[in-house]
Amino acid sequence: MSGFIFDLDGVLVDTAKFHFEAWRELARDLGFDMDETFNETLKGVSRMESLEKILQKGNIDASSDQKLSWAEQKNQNYLARVQKMTKADVLPGVLAFLEKSKQLKIPMAVGSASKNAVAILTLTEIKDYFQVIIDGNQISKGKPDPEVFLLAAKTLQLSPALCVVFEDAEAGIEAALAAGMYAVGVGDLEKADEMISGFEGQDPEQFILDPL
């Protein structure tokens, strides 16, 4: 049986805007601005790697302790916004797709760089659809390293070749392909094996892989 592994931000729920707002708030505190085009380069990337990119953009050098402090500041900015999330923040078509997948008994996991994945899944009331949640608290390498997806497959007790990954970021697509999985890009991601614009009207059965 195939298994489905979902990225969280921008795939299941609309948290991408909160990340952008939180990073921009930090950048402005540091004396410069960032736009949504630059924010695209942060998608799917870990918090510390994102901070490094932002500091590089602002031409700012800092100690490790200072960087950790800024990363925590960003996270607090983000969490303040996330705490207000509800089921309404689940992206269109996702609930129906998860419900049908559950009926088909497809094993499902979340594979996310976010350290707040469990809180977000709980607030939006979709946590119980997933047998496995692998997030930034359990991995040492961020995407495009395949660690998060390989650990999800291992925990689901599935071969990577039988796993379908749904991702909205280039780094995530690269991670899925590096893991030997079938990569479905949510959005315009040319490296993906297949692209969809979103989950509305999508049938989980069309993504079930036949064992080789």
TrEMBL record:
Catalytic residue list: 7 (nucleophile), 9 (proton donor/acceptor)
Binding of substrate, residues: 7-9, 23, 42-47, 50, 74, 112-116, 143
InterPro entries attached to this UniProt entry: B-phosphoglucomutase_hydrolase, Beta-PGM, HAD-like_sf, HAD-like_SPP, HAD-SF_hydro_IA, HAD_sf, PGP-like_dom2
Keywords assigned by UniProt, alphabetized: Magnesium, Metal-binding
Pfam families from the UniProt entry: Hydrolase
GO biological process: carbohydrate metabolic process
Site entry: Important for catalytic activity and assists the phosphoryl transfer reaction to Asp8 by balancing charge and orienting the reacting groups: 112, 143
Record note on cofactor: Binds 2 magnesium ions per subunit.
Residue numbers binding Mg(2+): 7, 9, 167-168
Superkingdom of origin: Bacteria
GO molecular function, one term: sugar-phosphatase activity
Cofactor: Mg(2+)
Family of this protein: Belongs to the HAD-like hydrolase superfamily. CbbY/CbbZ/Gph/YieH family.
Name of this chain's protein: Beta-phosphoglucomutase
Organism of derivation: Leadbetterella byssophila (strain DSM 17132 / JCM 16389 / KACC 11308 / NBRC 106382 / 4M15)
